[in-house]
Amino acid sequence: MMPRDTETVAPPDFAMIASEAYIYAMPLLALETFRRRRIENGAMHRPLHYRDLLTPDDRDITTPNNDTLYTDIWLDLDKGPARVSVPGTRGRYISLHLLDAYTNTIAVLGSRTTGPDTTEVTLVGPTGSTAGIKGPVVRCPTPTVLGLFRILVDDPNDLTWPRSIQDAIILDAPTHDGKEIPAVDRHAPWQNFFAEANRLIRRNPPPATDIEMLRRIAPLGIGPDTVFAPSRFTEEESEAIAEGLRICADRIARIQASLGRGGAGWVPPRRNLGVYGQDYFLRAVVAVGGLGALPLEEASYFRSGGVGGEAFVGTRSWRLHIPADRMLPANSFWSLSLYEPTAEGEFYFVHNPMNRYAVGDRTPGLKWNADGSLDIWIGHDSPGADRESNWLPAPPGTFQLFLRAYLPRVELLEGRYRIPDPEPVGS
Question: What is the C-alpha separation between 379 and 401, in angstroms, rounded?
Answer without folding.
Answer: 12
